[in-house]
Design brief:
The structure is a homotetramer. Chain A is mainly α. In chain A, about 70% of the residues lie in helices and about 0% in strands. Chain A has 2 domains: about 40 residues, Orthogonal Bundle (Arc Repressor Mutant, subunit A), CATH 1.10.10.60; about 130 residues, Tetracycline Repressor, domain 2. Chains A and B meet through helix 1, helix 6, helix 7, helix 8 and helix 9 of A and helix 6, helix 7, helix 8 and helix 9 of B. The structure holds a DNA duplex (31 and 31 nucleotides).
Chain lengths: ~210, ~210, ~210, ~210
DNA sequence: TGTTAAACGAGACGGTACGTCACGTCTTCGC
DNA sequence: GCGAAGACGTGACGTACCGTCTCGTTTAACA
């Protein structure tokens, strides 16, 4: 998670249990207190761990919360629901369900806000959170192409741009609906959204 | 801005110049320091104002930044560009230009993050920022209906839902593109986005 | 005490009561905890004062304790007891009484220890504590010369050296007896000490 | 402190070397950092020893420093210089030379300070440091009595009191001169001091 | 034109959390 | 089976901002 290279052989090894306890405590604190009132001292106490142990593993509040929130997105999956529309609706609903949880709501936007000034943090978010979501988009597209619902992309670069666009549209719409408009991304909304998106992607462009 | 009712007659009136100076100083500090390193003491110093004066007008960092950022959205306009597509492209580009400015990037997501736990703040954001944007969507739709590009909406509630959906899709996509993906919402991207959105909306059958 | 020049006119003035409360709390903590277990946070709490207030006035534990202990020496006086021997015995007993108090014992040697590496601290100790004691030696000598018990000193430099010597002998003996040997400098000991000292001084021929 | 020669004794041949290395490292750290900045982790590193090893042998910083400083006083000797005055001058100069060394200055007063609250520490200091010095006083008195410079003491208790007094006067004066007044106990000062002391002890008491 | 009451700058105040440091204890593994 | 390496819980450190509170001083509307 945070230690890329073990590097050392000697000495007492770091407690793996501590990592899990800290991340769980972080999520719990996010639920109860929200981002701005969450303190690392409190997280350490909840985890039954010393503050120093926490600082040995994470550089600060932002990094810690990225890792704690990232674990929430582990549950995102893309079971085959039979059609592209159903697949999209399914994954959007899953995504909305995660964003409906207070531990995600409180922390996610805060770390994104900070990432506009901290490239390392942005990279960490990309690797831990965004890529997890992006993978589903790629998977869904491949599956739809297998089914023949989408034509195979001849142009590699154009394909990447399209995937980016779709990803920003999907994730952006759900995030905005949930966190800015403050309304639930429920089944009805998801169905409307999916219809517009899919139609926009598959209908023949009536360009002049 | 923040004082609904002056209520008093006597005494020295509040300096209007101080308000402007404080908001300008806030934006300057956002540019230089970002949200997390911005302090109210520093803002007061930059504005040539005592901390007390600042606290007399705003309850805290979040409220202050909402107002400071909100002013950036005053410049959003919807000149008639001749077609719905052109109108959308125009306003999305304007929106993207604002989000590209560091004083907006740094602060916007932070207050949105906090608003997930603070209803008064959410309401303030809605009134100061979101409504300014939503108005353009309504205006654009009305203009498109005048032009005959869109059919008049018979169902009031359905119309409101559609406007909400469009708004979340537009704002969400631009925000996600700019702040999460970290890529510019340039003309090419905006054209692609607009094509998909418009196609999805206009080709949409009134499916049950 | 610590602020030589008030320097400013504007702003909220510092609380004089806080100073007194902090120094009293420091002495109380010295009594209960001793030097090494005394913490500034605890002192602040005892004084009913924020830690920051304490740090605004003193640079650290050493400086604070110097001032707190120095006040103990304010009570040193030299009433005329009729003879040089009686004067010396009186002041040595006073000095011993102060060193017998736990708030002095705990702190005094600690700051002296630190002063061997910190010239500013040494100077502060000299000004706050040592000079208070030295003044008594000078006063006692002057009074003895008035009485005719001691001859007037013709050589200025020699006189200074003698005063320094006497001071180191008096203060050193009492401190060593009390803090190193750990035995009380009671009346009997003081009488013996005074006899030796006085005999050594008055019988001393002006040997080259 | 690795022993190059294996010396395949399956006992602990390193133990003695480690002790010496740790004490030497302690003194070196005292010189470079002084008491308050000396840390046991640093001492262990300097000695090429694990912190664990250090804690197995000493209970803490105070105990360690007592032992490290005590070794400095091993060099105190009392060669026969022919007269009581010369003997005193000699030993006082030796004592002053030790107190002039930074490893003694920094540590000695600190442990004395702590010993005012810690009886075990006081006892350790007495046994390791004070008795070493006291022995010289006893030795000097015995030698002076052999020479006939001092009369034999008939009263045992009175004799002990006198020795204590002399010891406190000698050690106290040198310590105070060196560490509090911050001036060197050089030959001139020592000669003056010895003259006063000796005259005070040997002259006939002119008591009324 | 003088009163007067609020707003102003300055900055000290009681707090809270920060991130660091050293302590003294405890694992783990290598020699 | 020591002993180095180092992670651990603990707790104090000194700092930075917070938001509040005096102060003494403008300053503009009212009298």
């Amino acid at each position: 998670m945070q230690s890329r290279t073990p590097a050392t052989r000697t000495g007492r090894p770091r407690s793996a249990a501590a990592d899990a306890a800290i991340l769980a405590a972080t999520r719990q604190a996010l639920v109860e207190l929200g981002w701005s009132r969450l303190t690392l001292g409190d997280v350490a106490t909840r985890a039954g761990v010393a503050k120093t142990t926490l600082y040995r593993r994470w550089a600060g509040k932002h990094e810690l919360v990225v890792d704690a929130v990232a674990e929430l997105f582990d549950e995102l999956e893309l079971p085959d629901r039979g059609s592209l529309a159903a697949d999209i609706e399914g994954v959007v609903l899953q995504f909305a369900a995660i964003l409906a949880r207070p531990e995600a709501r409180s922390g996610l936007m805060a770390v994104v806000a900070e990432s506009t000034r901290d490239d390392a943090l942005r990279e960490r978010i990309r690797a831990s959170i965004v890529d997890r979501q992006m993978r589903l988009v790629l998977e869904g597209r491949a599956r739809a192409q297998c089914r023949g619902e989408l034509p195979p992309e001849p142009d590699q670069a154009e394909a990447a741009r399209t995937v980016d666009l779709i990803f920003d549209m999907v994730a952006g719409a759900v995030v905005h609906r949930t966190l800015v408009s403050g309304k639930p991304a429920d089944e009805e909304w998801v169905r409307s959204f999916t219809r517009v998106l899919l139609l926009g992607l598959t209908a023949a462009p009536a360009e002049p």
